[in-house]
Write a structure and sequence with these properties.
alpha/beta; 5-stranded parallel β-sheet; 6 helices; 5 strands
Length: about 130
């Protein structure tokens, strides 16, 4: 199945990036990976992904600051952001709700549920 959707995975854990890459490539998504938030921000600005999956706790630029810096970009070019982390407090839930086109998923995560979330955003029925 061909798919023109581009997905960016930002996580400092290589195994997380690889699991997401395998799942989405099997469904035809183009997958780009970044090791930290700063690298991810550069990819967002230059390669314009349709979906960004990011961890919160990362070196150089954490997921919260990444979301804050990309929120205004979504006014002109909407894209889905999925924020993932192991532990989340009520303050994190609050700022995530305030971001445009942003969802939360707790780690450990189900790759199938992650794919369902992305498909729902694009209204794809499987």
């Amino acid at each position: 199945m061909g798919n023109d959707k581009k997905l960016l995975v930002i996580d400092d854990e290589a195994v997380i990036r690889r699991v997401v890459e395998i799942k989405f490539k099997k469904r035809g998504y183009q997958v780009i990976m970044a090791r930290d938030g700063q690298e991810g921000l550069n990819v967002i600005k230059t390669q314009h992904p349709d979906v960004v999956i990011t961890d919160i706790n990362m070196p150089k630029l954490d997921g919260k600051r990444l979301c804050e810096q990309t929120n205004d970009l979504k006014k002109e070019r909407p894209f889905l952001t999925i924020v993932m982390t192991c532990q989340i407090d009520s303050d994190d839930h609050n700022w995530i709700k305030e971001m445009r086109d942003t969802e939360f998923m707790e780690k450990p995560f189900s790759p199938s549920k992650l794919l369902e979330c992305v498909d729902r955003y694009f209204h794809i029925k499987r």
